[in-house]
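Fold this sequence, please.
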Amino acid sequence: MQQPPHAENADVRMRGFARRTPVAVAEAWVDRACRPLPPEMTPLAECAGRVLAGDVTSEVDVPGFVRGMMDGYAVRAADILGASLYNRIPLRVIGASLPGRPFDGSVAAGQAVQIMTGAPLPAGADAVLPAECVETSGDGVSAQADVAPGAHAGRIGDDIARGTQVLAAGRVLRPQDVGVLSSIGVAEVAVVRRPCVAIVSTGNELLPAGSRPVGVCIADSNSPMLAAFVARDGGLAEPTGVVPDAPEAILDAMRRAADVVLVSGGSSVGREDFAPTLLTQHGTLAIHGIAMRPAGPTGMGTLDGRLVFLLPGNPVACLAAYDFFAGRAIRLLGSRPARWPYRSVRLPLARRITSAIGRLEYVRVRCVDGQIEPISVGGSSILSSTSRADGFVVVAPDSEGHPAGEEVEVTLYD
C-alpha cells in the first residue's frame, strides 16, 4: 500500500504535523486494508453473536412427518361429516399418538386415535378433531363438530422445506437463529474468525486499570474501555497491561501475535511519543495526523502483517479514534458492517456549535427536552463527558458549525 508523503520521516517528535489527513481518506485506507478473516467451524452452543461465513441450506424437512397441531383425536374427516351438537357421531378410540411415541397402526372407518400436539398423525387419519369438540363415553367418543381434511394437521416441511436457504452469509447469529440451526440438524457452523486485538497502553504515569490514582500517577482507563469496544465490535481483546515509555518495550508489545494492535498513548509528536517512529522504522506508518478534533494525533499502519492503530492517550480522543478508524477495521475484519453500530436521530440544537474549517469536529451532546445541548468541556482528557453525553454530532470539515435551532443528526451512544 502506497505511503503518504508525510509518513516518510522516521522521527517526527517535536516537529509537529506537516499536514493532516482528511477523515474520509483515513477511512478509505482502513477499508482497503481490511478483508474478512477466514471462517472457522464453531459448535452450535458457541455461535450466537458470530457472523455466518456462508449460506446455510436445510438438508431435511422440518417437520419430517405430518403432525397434530392441537390436542384431540386423529380422525378421517369423511367419517364425521355433518357432526354437530344435535347430530353426534360415535367413534371408537383405538389408541394414542404422543410426541416421540406414535400410534403403531392405522385408523379405519369409524375409528379415532387420541393425539397430543406435535405427535405424528396416524396412518389413515387426515385431520384432528379438537378435544373440546368431542364427548367421551367409555372407550369411545362422540364427535360434536366436523372438520375439513387436513384440519389441525401440520404438513411435512411446514416449518422448513428441504433445500431451503435458511440463513444467509454475513448474518450475525441471534439466539433464535441458533434454534433454527439446531432444528435442521446442524451441530457446528462456519463463522468468520473473530479478530484478535492486542491492546497496548503506554505511559510512565499509568497505573494498572482499576487502581486508585496516587500522586502524579493515573489509572489506565483506556485499555478497559477499548477492550469493551473490541468485544462490542466482535473482536477478541487481549490487553497487555501498562507498558512504559521505552522504545524496546513498546516495540515488543506491538509485535504481539494479533490481527490488530491498538497502541494507546505516545501517538503524537512529543519527546516520548515513540510509537510513530517505531512503526516507521520497523513497519509502515501509512497515516499520521488526522484532520479532526479530538483524535488529531492518530496514526495507522502495518507491522509484520498486522494492522497497527496509534490512538491518542487522552481518553476522549482515544474513544473517537477507535470509533472512526480502529473499530471500523475490526468490524470489517470480522465481516460486520463498517458503519457505527449506533442509531441516530435528528433534533434541533439548543445552542450553536462552532467549528474550524478544514477539520471534522466530534461534539459530545445531551438530549434535553427534545433538543440537543452541546456539552461545554475543554480538552479531550475529560472522559466523564462521554458518560454525561447521550451521543455526538459530527461537524463536517467544510462547515463552520450549526446555528441554534438547526436540526442536526445526532449519533446516540446507545
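The first strand starts at residue 39 and ends at 43. Residues 67-154 form a domain with the Molybdopterin biosynthesis moeA protein; domain 3 fold (CATH 2.170.190.11).
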